[in-house]
Amino acid sequence: MTHVGLVTIARGRREHWELQTAALERSLRRPDERILVTMGDPSLARAARDAGTTAVVETDGEEGSLPLARARNLGAQAALDRGVDVLVFLDVDCLPAPALVGAYEAAARAAATRDCLLSGPVTYLDPPPPGGYDLDRLAELDSPHPARPAPGPDEVQLGGSPDLFWSLSFALTADLWGRIGGFHEGYAGYGGEDTDFGWTARARGVPMAWIGGARAYHQHHPVEDPPRRHLDAILRNGALFHRRWGTWPMRGWLDAFVDEGIAVRTADGGYARREQDPGLPRRTPQT
Q: Cα separation of 177 and 83, whole Å?
């Protein structure tokens, strides 16, 4: 029988964690192991331990440079140490549909998809109503992000660009995790580590598959677009990706930073923070 582990990493967002827990209790197939990796958040770690249903791993983490890649690797190792043979990763902001765990498990066992990196459609929710999200009616809000494949609940779509991989919700077998080698821990802070994982998977012969039954719902929280407060991390991680793969990721954000005057294109075709010239008017990004 398949042994499924669900890994979540978090700093803060305790209310999101608690609502995800409530959603998991409605799962048609619950994970055999649940792992939470906290990044510099002893309060959340203590609350999860007190609940008694989650294995907790703690690591350091400052808000501006969260070790997202290392945290996912730590969570995967903790799950593997507990005998897991299917790993499911779910962002702390994501609410799983009742079928998500079971759909990932079935895809990890099916001949057509067991050797694939599995992703499910994610709906970004509007702000919750006064009474909060109704977990029993999430399907009524289903509207998957248009930038990714979104097969129907009973459908599977094979293939796709590794640029489309995102770490909000994905799964794979323990064997494939070992083949890919986990996330590159040179990435710290926002951006790049998930695209690198997708490219590494492709380089090691692991294609993608989109599992329509593994639907998730991303709880609303304010975001910046482009994420200006993460400028330095995006530039640093983008440069690391370029050194590894010969191209720049996150070009939409990077070009937006250039348009806003807080970054520049360099002579070699890269990107860098703009150093303010005292003789030029100073442009202040919106917050």
A: 14
Q: What is the pLDDT of residues 70-99, one digit of tens each?
A: 999 999 999 999 999 999 999 999 999 999
Look at residue 284 in the predicted model and tell me its pLDDT. Answer: 40
HEC profile of the chain: CCCEEEEEEECCCHHHHHHHHHHHCCCCCCCCEEEEEEECCHHHHHHHHHHCCCEEEEECCCHHHCCHHHHHHHHHHHHHHCCCCEEEEECCCEEECCCHHHHHHHHHHCCCCCCCEEECCEEECCCCCCCCCCHHHHHHHCCECCCCCCCCCCCEEECCCHHHCCCCEEEEEHHHHHHHCCCCCCCCCCCCHHHHHHHHHHHCCCCEEEECCCCEEECCCCCCCCCHHHHHHHHHHHHHHHHHHCCCCCHHHHHHHHHHCCEEECCCCCEEECCCCCCCCCCCCCC
Backbone angle region of 156, left / alpha / beta, with phi > 0 → left and psi within -120 to 50 → alpha = beta
What values do phi and psi take at 100, rounded to 5?
Answer: -60, -55
Query: What is the pTM assigned to this prediction?
Result: 0.93
